[in-house]
Amino acid sequence: MNKTDKNRTKLFDKKFNELFENKMTNNRRVLPVRMDLRFPKEYDHDGLNKEISKFHKTLQQSYRDQGIDVGYHTVREQRTSPNPHYHSMLFFNGDKVRNPYGVKKRCGEIWNSIVGYEGEGLVHHCTHKPEHPIPALEMVHRPARKATGEERKRQKEKFEKSCEIVRKHAEYLNKSYSKGTAPKRVREVFTSQVRISFREPQNYPE
User: What whole-number distance in Å separates Cα of residue 56 and Cα of residue 51?
Assistant: First the structure.
């Protein structure tokens, strides 16, 4: 990995960590959802990112109408394909959104509408099987303040495990492979705005 790749990965990691820590500070439970978005084979892509920008905006607005904030961390990759593709991780308040399948269905509908495609296959839902080296994402639940003794220990261990799984997925998103190919001044990372928290800071595993 050269210096440019290292700096890029470091920047992507920083953006992701700020977002994830903010979501965990502001929510008792956080639902992370992973997906990959691709273009149809014959899609005439202009090299920019207007489609993914519209996807983020439309998705956020669709949930904002329900009083739900959507956090996202999305990276652009392209190697030999004529069109780029995107890896994305979304974050929801786990007390308001508990099932990822409704999220994935909505994302598929929005993306298909943007790229003018009818059918399935453009949005891959990353629900990893047990044999996959990176475990499937799960609800991240902060330990209850009232929990004590063995129950608090159990909740803390589960919380740390869930956080570690999220970070492993982030490592995959932020890897240097297939990056650095976008046209000059075209972004390869998109991270939603970090909202100011009014909660007391929490201590989370590194």
Answer: 9
Mean of pLDDT over the chain = 91
* 126 to 11, 123, 132, 146, 155: CA distances (angstroms): 24, 9, 11, 34, 26
Q: From the CB of residue 21, how many other CB atoms can be counted at a distance below 10 Å?
A: 16
Question: Do 75 and 189 form a contact (C-beta atoms < 8 A)?
Answer: yes
Q: Two tokens at 160?
A: 């740390």
pTM, entire model: 0.89
Query: Among 91, 71, 70, 202, which residue's Cα sits nearest to residue 144?
Result: 202
CB atoms within 10 A of CB 168: 13
164-185: average pLDDT? 93
pLDDT at 130 over 80: no
Domain ranges of the chain: 3-191
The rounded percent of the chain whose pLDDT value lies above 90 is 81
